[in-house]
Amino acid sequence: MSPHRHGRPPLSAEALLASARFTLSLLPIRLAHRIQALRNLPYIVVSNHNIRKIYNNYQHSLSTLLPWQGRTISNLDDEIRFTEVLAELVQTHTDTIPILARGFLECRKYISAAEVTRFLDEHLRARIGTRLVAEQHIALHFSSTPHFDPAASPTPCPEHPSYIGVIDTALRPASTIDSCGGFVADICELNYGVRPRWVVDGEPDTTFAFVPMHLEYIVTELLKNAFRATVENGMNREPVVITIAPEPPNLSPQHGTVHLDLPHETRGVFGGADAIAPLDDNAPGVTIRIRDRGGGINPDVMPHIWGYSFTTFVDDDEVPGAWSDDALGVISAASNGASSIAGLGYGLPLSRAYAEYFGGGIGVQSLYGWGTDVYLGLKGVGKIK
């Protein structure tokens, strides 16, 4: 299996048109499903100006795509205009999650935290898929023969021949960990005056096929947790240890050594009812363990770590896992930039959504009073021939 049915870039004009037509066949129904999910919320919640803004964004995006459905993208001029529409769609929905989160917090009298978690879980998985479909075509557009632009393309062939659109077929997790570690250590140094250390062991030269921006998001969030706990527990002398373990080839899921709490159904852009192609179960994957000496997770907190509404205990009267006014400030502060999704304080549930997207997952093992092990299991997106 190849991660994309249209071949390796640079694509011919005909392959690019096929990619555009294929992308158009997927996106309207995905947007329509999101509109329907928002309509299924209580009316008073959808009336909130933040939720309504997202609802209107989806309606606008669908209305700009629907006129394309009655025609065939048959020439490069059509493809250019269609790609411009896709780029606008991706930009329009950049801050969807923080805006939705703020709206839900403002409506906390009318919707339970459990309902919000269910909605955001489903919405996130659908959103990841929709953006990936659009971003994959945009990447292939800039790395195709007719439009090749080394400055604009995420796939600047032939300088990075391992890329197919937004997928790196030879992604090296150790490199991502080191770059994200440097970024998170800078934040720690700024906030605490201390720079945590980390060590990568296991098999650091491991590579697999994955979406780099997904891995960067997950690793950044998990390292934030590990570094912060290490510093706040006064264990700066102890490095965070990140172990990389490639999955043996042809390992069936039941023979895995780490049990990860996966959803009953993982729908992805490469697997599921409205997918690009079936996942190859034999695609090599990777397990990454992040081990810190940050004191572990309080057992009272542990049941709530996957909830979007949970932030911290504000005072003794707070119900664990209940809405917190502090969260509103966190999310408001986070929605000031294009990368706002990375600053919500929702690190674990968001990271798990990205990991599960291609059939992976995240498991957390805490030794309270000692530290935490986080197991990140990732499936490769396909075998590369």
What does this structure look like?
- The protein has 385 residues and is of the alpha+beta class.
- The protein has two domains: 13-161, Alpha-ketoacid/pyruvate dehydrogenase kinase, N-terminal domain (Butyryl-CoA Dehydrogenase, subunit A, domain 3), CATH 1.20.140.20; 166-308 and 346-378, Heat Shock Protein 90, CATH 3.30.565.10.
- The chain has ten helices and eight strands.
- The chain has helices spanning 13-39, 43-46, 49-69, 76-92, 96-106, 113-142, 173-192, 212-232, 325-334, 347-356, and strands at residues 163-164, 167-171, 198-202, 208-210, 240-246, 286-292, 361-367, 371-378.
- The strands form two sheets. Strands 3-5-6-8-7 form a five-stranded mixed beta sheet, with helices on one face. A three-stranded antiparallel beta sheet has the order 1-2-4, with helices on one face.
- Helix 1 runs antiparallel to helix 6 (113-142), helix 3 (49-69) runs antiparallel to helix 4 (76-92) and helix 7 (173-192) packs across helix 8.
- The longest helix is centred in the N-terminal third of the chain and has 30 residues, at 113-142.
- The N and C termini lie close together (7 Å).
